[in-house]
Design brief:
Keywords: Hydrolase
CATH topology: Amidase signature (AS) enzymes
CATH class: Alpha Beta
Number of domains: 1
InterPro entries: Amidase, Amidase_dom, AS_sf, Carboxybiuret_hydro_AtzE
Helix content: 25-40%
Number of helices: 14
Structural class: alpha+beta
Strand content: 15-25%
Radius of gyration: 21 Å
Largest sheet: 11 strands, mixed
Protein name: Biuret hydrolase
Distance between the termini: 14 Å
CATH superfamily: Amidase signature (AS) domain
Strand order of the largest sheet: 1-3-2-8-10-9-16-17-13-11-12
Shape: globular
GO molecular function: biuret amidohydrolase activity
Number of strands: 17
Organism: Komagataeibacter europaeus
Length: 457
């Protein structure tokens, strides 16, 4: 069954069926596991299937319903987590063999715990760039995750497994992390919805760190409704009412964010702005320096985090990760301090821009997913590494700690995506704009054959 545009949201539809007794949680979970086993060989999005534990939790959901008790708003909904979230009973590897001999986690990451309490069932851990350091999910230990829309192309990273499993229709929602674009980039290249919440809003307990001053965790899903529901539970709060989209001031980012993008992406952003009836263009200052600062901060913090282990076990690291971490560990302290000073300056200017608009629209990547055998993109007329440069539009935004909703444009052919950027704490306005774009058919996820959408016979 090919499923397009689940208007109610696949996760919410599953929960409604399970709560009403139309489907059992066990059948949903076992069907999804069977589907992953049958189809993920094409995509390599899943690193481990949590079969026995997932079925056991699904049985508890069904028992709760049979006893007449509330199983939670996501009852029986299967999901996957990037392999840097603790899942009780499992070793958290962060995509590396370096951690494989660690003891299993004794409890879930806080956000996984919250989702489990809401009835959702973790069924898989998902592929990623080693230690989340990359934009492509090319991993020397676990292999490359392939884009479900064209398996000859990259899924993006570092949360590539999380995006690809939603795009493939294997899972209705997943969790990823975003330091410099690791939710937004794969969401856009795979054509799914993703959210990087405001920095500091989500608890990071039980999440393997990369860059403490930039790390954020968030969901990916196939509809805005699912994304909003999962985000609300992860954040531990009651749903917040969305404003009327007509009251949300929307502007387009120009300058740096208008250069190097494909014609199709320009056309898509034009259509979004025309539909919203907005023509304001805002330019941020010194964006190239902002990107460089994010790069330096990431390298320095990441290198420092891993330095002691690199001294003992460097050859166990993915060679590409090892080289970048070692280079970061050797950065002079003065360079890091200067990057942090610039960060404060840039954040002030971004906040000034947000005084004139509630939501800023920008591309997520320069175009469609690069080919795996030609992992490069063109920037300023030069062919450069995709793994290092896919974050050209996401890294500068990370520096300011803003919430960003990645929206998949409705385009023919390979997916393209945009960033909806808000002020700190402005997620409700992002959801209002995203919902309007989905309603108007300008943005939509196009999952492949979705096993989780099959009803019990």
């Amino acid at each position: 069954m090919t499923v397009h545009g689940h208007k109610a949201g696949a996760a919410l539809a599953i929960a409604a069926d399970v709560r009403a007794g139309r489907r059992s949680a066990v059948s949903v979970v076992t069907d999804v596991i069977a589907d992953i086993e049958a189809r993920d060989t094409r995509f390599n999005s899943v690193t481990r299937i949590l079969g026995p534990a997932a079925v056991a939790q699904a049985e508890e959901v069904d028992k709760t319903i049979a006893a007449g008790r509330d199983p939670g708003p996501l009852a029986g909904v299967p999901f996957g987590v990037k392999d840097l979230f603790d899942v009780r009973g499992e070793v958290t590897t962060a995509g590396s063999i370096v951690l494989r001999d660690n003891l299993p986690a004794t409890r879930d990451a806080v956000v996984v715990e919250r989702l489990r309490a809401a009835g959702a069932v973790p069924v898989a851990t998902l592929n990623m760039d080693e230690f989340a350091y990359g934009f492509s999910t090319e991993n020397a230990h676990t292999g490359t995750t392939r884009n479900p829309h064209d398996t000859a192309r990259l899924a993006g990273g570092s949360s590539g497994g999380s995006a690809a499993s939603v795009a493939a229709g294997l899972l209705p929602f997943t969790l990823g992390s975003d330091t410099n674009g690791s939710i937004r980039i794969p969401s856009s290249l795979c054509g799914v919805w993703g959210l990087k919440p405001t920095y500091g809003q989500m608890p990071l307990g039980g999440v393997y760190p990369f860059v403490a001053s930039l790390d954020v965790v968030g969901p990916m899903a196939d509809t805005v409704e699912d994304l909003r529901a999962v985000y609300t539970i992860m954040a531990g709060g009651a749903p917040v009412g969305e404003p009327d989209v007509g009251d949300v001031r929307v502007a387009r980012l120009g300058g740096w964010f208008a250069n190097n993008i494909s014609t199709e992406l320009t056309t898509g952003i034009d259509a979004v702005m025309a539909h919203l009836g907005r023509d304001q263009v805002i330019e941020l200052p010194e964006v190239a320096r902002a990107r460089a600062s994010a790069f330096l901060i990431s390298a320095a913090e990441g290198g420092n985090l891993h330095l002691a282990r690199l001294r003992r076990r460097s050859m166990q690291y993915d060679p590409a990760t090892r080289g970048r971490l070692m280079a970061g560990a050797m950065l002079p302290a003065a360079t890091f301090v200067q990057a942090q000073r610039f960060r404060r300056w840039f954040r002030e200017h971004v906040h000034a821009a947000l005084a004139h608009a509630d939501v800023l629209v920008a591309p997520t990547t320069v175009g469609v997913a690069p080919r795996i055998d030609q992992p490069s993109i063109v920037v300023d007329g030069r062919t450069v590494s995709a793994r290092a440069n896919l974050g050209i539009f996401t890294q500068p935004i990370s520096l300011a700690g803003l919430p960003v909703l990645a929206a998949p444009l409705s385009v023919d052919g390979l997916p393209l995506g945009i960033q909806l950027i808000g002020a700190p704490g402005g997620e409700a306005k992002l959801f209002a704009v995203a919902a309007e774009l989905q309603r108007a058919g300008l943005a939509a996820c196009r999952p492949l054959d979705a096993g989780y959408a099959r009803k019990d016979s």
